[in-house]
Write a structure and sequence with these properties.
single chain, 248 residues, mainly beta, 4-stranded antiparallel beta sheet
Protein backbone atom coordinates (compact mmCIF):
# COMPACT_ATOMS: atom_id res chain seq x y z
CA UNK A 1 0.00 0.00 0.00
CA UNK A 2 2.87 2.32 -0.75
CA UNK A 3 3.33 4.11 -4.05
CA UNK A 4 6.87 4.10 -5.37
CA UNK A 5 8.63 6.40 -7.81
CA UNK A 6 12.17 6.08 -9.18
CA UNK A 7 14.35 9.14 -8.61
CA UNK A 8 18.02 9.20 -9.69
CA UNK A 9 18.15 5.41 -9.74
CA UNK A 10 16.74 5.06 -6.23
CA UNK A 11 13.22 4.19 -5.14
CA UNK A 12 11.71 6.67 -2.72
CA UNK A 13 8.39 6.39 -0.91
CA UNK A 14 5.50 8.61 -1.92
CA UNK A 15 1.76 8.26 -1.31
CA UNK A 16 2.47 6.23 1.83
CA UNK A 17 -0.79 4.72 3.05
CA UNK A 18 -2.35 4.76 -0.43
CA UNK A 19 -2.98 1.94 -2.87
CA UNK A 20 -1.89 3.49 -6.18
CA UNK A 21 -3.62 2.18 -9.33
CA UNK A 22 -3.32 3.25 -12.07
CA UNK A 23 -0.46 5.58 -13.06
CA UNK A 24 -1.00 7.20 -16.48
CA UNK A 25 1.18 9.45 -18.66
CA UNK A 26 -0.88 12.13 -20.41
CA UNK A 27 2.17 13.56 -22.19
CA UNK A 28 5.93 13.07 -21.82
CA UNK A 29 6.94 13.86 -18.25
CA UNK A 30 3.38 14.47 -17.04
CA UNK A 31 2.00 11.64 -14.92
CA UNK A 32 -1.31 11.16 -13.18
CA UNK A 33 -2.04 8.67 -10.41
CA UNK A 34 -5.07 7.55 -8.47
CA UNK A 35 -4.42 6.78 -4.81
CA UNK A 36 -6.95 5.05 -2.57
CA UNK A 37 -6.93 4.70 1.21
CA UNK A 38 -8.11 1.68 3.18
CA UNK A 39 -11.55 3.28 3.49
CA UNK A 40 -11.81 3.52 -0.31
CA UNK A 41 -11.47 7.30 -0.47
CA UNK A 42 -9.55 8.28 -3.62
CA UNK A 43 -7.29 11.19 -4.48
CA UNK A 44 -6.10 12.23 -7.94
CA UNK A 45 -2.42 13.25 -8.10
CA UNK A 46 -0.43 14.92 -10.87
CA UNK A 47 3.35 14.66 -11.34
CA UNK A 48 4.73 17.80 -12.93
CA UNK A 49 8.05 19.62 -12.55
CA UNK A 50 9.39 16.68 -10.49
CA UNK A 51 6.68 17.05 -7.83
CA UNK A 52 3.55 15.01 -7.06
CA UNK A 53 0.60 17.19 -6.09
CA UNK A 54 -3.00 16.30 -5.16
CA UNK A 55 -5.66 17.78 -7.43
CA UNK A 56 -7.80 19.91 -5.14
CA UNK A 57 -10.49 20.50 -7.80
CA UNK A 58 -11.77 16.92 -7.44
CA UNK A 59 -11.16 16.51 -3.70
CA UNK A 60 -14.16 14.87 -2.06
CA UNK A 61 -15.44 13.33 -5.31
CA UNK A 62 -15.97 9.57 -5.15
CA UNK A 63 -13.43 8.61 -7.81
CA UNK A 64 -13.46 4.95 -8.88
CA UNK A 65 -10.97 4.78 -11.79
CA UNK A 66 -8.76 6.70 -14.21
CA UNK A 67 -8.34 6.15 -17.96
CA UNK A 68 -6.42 7.78 -20.85
CA UNK A 69 -7.79 8.17 -24.38
CA UNK A 70 -6.45 9.56 -27.66
CA UNK A 71 -4.84 12.97 -27.41
CA UNK A 72 -3.81 12.53 -23.80
CA UNK A 73 -7.26 13.28 -22.41
CA UNK A 74 -8.13 11.69 -19.10
CA UNK A 75 -11.45 10.19 -18.11
CA UNK A 76 -12.19 9.95 -14.41
CA UNK A 77 -15.06 7.66 -13.41
CA UNK A 78 -17.10 8.74 -10.40
CA UNK A 79 -18.94 6.26 -8.19
CA UNK A 80 -22.60 6.64 -9.13
CA UNK A 81 -22.14 9.92 -10.98
CA UNK A 82 -20.75 9.36 -14.47
CA UNK A 83 -17.34 10.52 -15.72
CA UNK A 84 -15.19 13.64 -15.86
CA UNK A 85 -13.38 14.32 -19.13
CA UNK A 86 -10.14 16.18 -18.41
CA UNK A 87 -7.99 17.97 -20.95
CA UNK A 88 -4.57 18.35 -19.26
CA UNK A 89 -3.96 21.47 -21.37
CA UNK A 90 -6.85 23.34 -19.73
CA UNK A 91 -6.76 21.64 -16.34
CA UNK A 92 -9.18 19.82 -14.08
CA UNK A 93 -11.13 23.03 -13.37
CA UNK A 94 -12.39 22.88 -16.98
CA UNK A 95 -13.37 19.19 -16.86
CA UNK A 96 -16.59 18.18 -18.62
CA UNK A 97 -19.03 16.08 -16.57
CA UNK A 98 -20.72 13.33 -18.62
CA UNK A 99 -23.40 10.74 -17.74
CA UNK A 100 -24.43 12.39 -14.48
CA UNK A 101 -26.28 10.00 -12.18
CA UNK A 102 -24.99 6.85 -13.92
CA UNK A 103 -22.60 4.33 -12.36
CA UNK A 104 -19.84 3.72 -14.94
CA UNK A 105 -18.24 0.30 -14.37
CA UNK A 106 -16.03 0.00 -17.49
CA UNK A 107 -14.52 2.32 -20.09
CA UNK A 108 -12.58 1.83 -23.35
CA UNK A 109 -11.90 3.58 -26.66
CA UNK A 110 -12.28 1.67 -29.91
CA UNK A 111 -10.16 1.91 -33.07
CA UNK A 112 -12.51 4.53 -34.54
CA UNK A 113 -12.09 6.78 -31.51
CA UNK A 114 -15.49 6.18 -29.91
CA UNK A 115 -15.43 6.03 -26.11
CA UNK A 116 -17.55 3.23 -24.65
CA UNK A 117 -18.78 3.26 -21.07
CA UNK A 118 -20.24 0.18 -19.43
CA UNK A 119 -22.97 1.00 -16.93
CA UNK A 120 -24.50 -0.64 -13.90
CA UNK A 121 -27.97 -1.95 -14.90
CA UNK A 122 -28.07 0.43 -17.90
CA UNK A 123 -26.18 -1.33 -20.70
CA UNK A 124 -23.49 0.70 -22.47
CA UNK A 125 -23.18 4.29 -23.67
CA UNK A 126 -20.92 5.51 -26.50
CA UNK A 127 -19.45 8.99 -27.02
CA UNK A 128 -18.50 10.18 -30.51
CA UNK A 129 -17.07 13.49 -29.35
CA UNK A 130 -20.41 15.28 -29.74
CA UNK A 131 -23.19 13.17 -28.25
CA UNK A 132 -23.95 10.02 -26.29
CA UNK A 133 -25.90 7.00 -27.53
CA UNK A 134 -27.13 4.20 -25.26
CA UNK A 135 -27.53 0.57 -26.26
CA UNK A 136 -28.01 -2.91 -24.78
CA UNK A 137 -30.96 -3.97 -22.62
CA UNK A 138 -31.02 -2.48 -19.14
CA UNK A 139 -30.63 -5.57 -16.97
CA UNK A 140 -31.37 -5.01 -13.30
CA UNK A 141 -28.58 -6.20 -11.01
CA UNK A 142 -26.06 -6.64 -13.84
CA UNK A 143 -23.02 -4.49 -14.55
CA UNK A 144 -20.80 -4.26 -17.61
CA UNK A 145 -17.37 -5.28 -16.28
CA UNK A 146 -15.15 -5.04 -19.37
CA UNK A 147 -15.44 -3.93 -23.01
CA UNK A 148 -12.91 -5.01 -25.67
CA UNK A 149 -12.53 -4.84 -29.45
CA UNK A 150 -11.54 -7.91 -31.46
CA UNK A 151 -9.43 -8.15 -34.62
CA UNK A 152 -12.51 -7.77 -36.81
CA UNK A 153 -13.50 -4.45 -35.17
CA UNK A 154 -16.30 -6.21 -33.29
CA UNK A 155 -17.08 -5.25 -29.71
CA UNK A 156 -17.53 -7.56 -26.73
CA UNK A 157 -18.90 -6.67 -23.30
CA UNK A 158 -18.59 -8.89 -20.22
CA UNK A 159 -21.34 -8.73 -17.61
CA UNK A 160 -21.50 -9.53 -13.91
CA UNK A 161 -24.58 -11.74 -14.19
CA UNK A 162 -25.55 -12.78 -17.73
CA UNK A 163 -22.53 -13.72 -19.82
CA UNK A 164 -21.42 -11.66 -22.82
CA UNK A 165 -22.79 -9.17 -25.30
CA UNK A 166 -21.32 -9.09 -28.82
CA UNK A 167 -21.67 -6.44 -31.52
CA UNK A 168 -20.01 -7.57 -34.79
CA UNK A 169 -18.28 -5.00 -36.95
CA UNK A 170 -20.80 -3.02 -38.99
CA UNK A 171 -23.77 -4.18 -36.89
CA UNK A 172 -25.98 -1.82 -34.94
CA UNK A 173 -27.39 -4.40 -32.52
CA UNK A 174 -25.77 -6.43 -29.76
CA UNK A 175 -26.32 -10.19 -29.40
CA UNK A 176 -26.21 -12.15 -26.16
CA UNK A 177 -23.67 -14.98 -25.87
CA UNK A 178 -22.92 -17.44 -23.03
CA UNK A 179 -25.88 -15.85 -21.26
CA UNK A 180 -26.35 -18.87 -18.98
CA UNK A 181 -22.76 -18.65 -17.67
CA UNK A 182 -23.32 -15.80 -15.23
CA UNK A 183 -20.38 -13.53 -14.39
CA UNK A 184 -17.52 -13.28 -16.91
CA UNK A 185 -14.39 -12.69 -14.84
CA UNK A 186 -11.94 -12.44 -17.75
CA UNK A 187 -12.50 -10.84 -21.16
CA UNK A 188 -9.26 -10.04 -23.01
CA UNK A 189 -8.47 -9.26 -26.66
CA UNK A 190 -4.96 -10.31 -27.69
CA UNK A 191 -2.77 -8.88 -30.46
CA UNK A 192 -3.78 -11.65 -32.88
CA UNK A 193 -7.38 -10.38 -32.70
CA UNK A 194 -8.70 -13.25 -30.58
CA UNK A 195 -11.06 -12.70 -27.67
CA UNK A 196 -10.50 -14.85 -24.59
CA UNK A 197 -12.98 -15.52 -21.78
CA UNK A 198 -13.31 -17.27 -18.45
CA UNK A 199 -16.07 -17.04 -15.88
CA UNK A 200 -17.45 -18.25 -12.61
CA UNK A 201 -19.56 -20.83 -14.46
CA UNK A 202 -17.21 -20.96 -17.43
CA UNK A 203 -13.97 -22.44 -16.02
CA UNK A 204 -10.68 -22.75 -17.84
CA UNK A 205 -9.95 -20.50 -20.80
CA UNK A 206 -11.39 -20.35 -24.31
CA UNK A 207 -11.21 -18.08 -27.36
CA UNK A 208 -13.60 -17.10 -30.15
CA UNK A 209 -12.63 -18.55 -33.54
CA UNK A 210 -15.07 -16.35 -35.46
CA UNK A 211 -17.67 -19.14 -35.47
CA UNK A 212 -17.45 -20.87 -32.09
CA UNK A 213 -15.69 -20.96 -28.73
CA UNK A 214 -12.54 -23.10 -28.65
CA UNK A 215 -11.34 -24.44 -25.30
CA UNK A 216 -7.62 -23.69 -24.93
CA UNK A 217 -7.17 -24.40 -21.21
CA UNK A 218 -9.38 -27.21 -19.92
CA UNK A 219 -9.68 -26.72 -16.17
CA UNK A 220 -12.47 -27.12 -13.61
CA UNK A 221 -11.38 -23.81 -12.09
CA UNK A 222 -11.92 -20.30 -13.48
CA UNK A 223 -9.17 -17.94 -14.58
CA UNK A 224 -9.05 -14.55 -12.85
CA UNK A 225 -6.40 -12.72 -14.89
CA UNK A 226 -4.85 -13.03 -18.35
CA UNK A 227 -1.82 -11.05 -19.56
CA UNK A 228 -0.11 -11.12 -22.96
CA UNK A 229 3.69 -10.69 -22.96
CA UNK A 230 5.44 -8.76 -25.77
CA UNK A 231 6.43 -12.06 -27.46
CA UNK A 232 2.80 -13.21 -27.56
CA UNK A 233 3.04 -15.60 -24.61
CA UNK A 234 -0.14 -15.68 -22.54
CA UNK A 235 0.01 -15.91 -18.74
CA UNK A 236 -3.20 -16.97 -17.01
CA UNK A 237 -3.68 -16.80 -13.26
CA UNK A 238 -6.12 -19.40 -11.94
CA UNK A 239 -8.19 -19.71 -8.78
CA UNK A 240 -6.18 -21.90 -6.37
CA UNK A 241 -4.49 -23.30 -9.49
CA UNK A 242 -1.34 -21.24 -9.88
CA UNK A 243 -0.14 -19.75 -13.15
CA UNK A 244 -0.60 -21.19 -16.63
CA UNK A 245 1.53 -20.30 -19.68
CA UNK A 246 0.50 -20.57 -23.32
CA UNK A 247 3.46 -20.17 -25.68
CA UNK A 248 2.37 -19.09 -29.15
Amino acid sequence: REGLVDRDGQFVEVFKGFTVVPIIESEPGHLWALGKTRSGAATLFQYKDNVWKPIVAVAGRRISNLYRITGGRLWLTLDGDGVLEIDPATGVDQAVHHLKGFNVTALMQDAKGLVWCGLWANGVASWDGTQWAQSLPRVKGSAILTIVEDGRAGLWAATSANGLWHRPSGASEWTGDLTDKGSINVLVATKDGRVWVSGQNLPGLRYWSGREWIVSLDSPLPIRTLVEAPDGTLWAGGVLDGLHMLKK
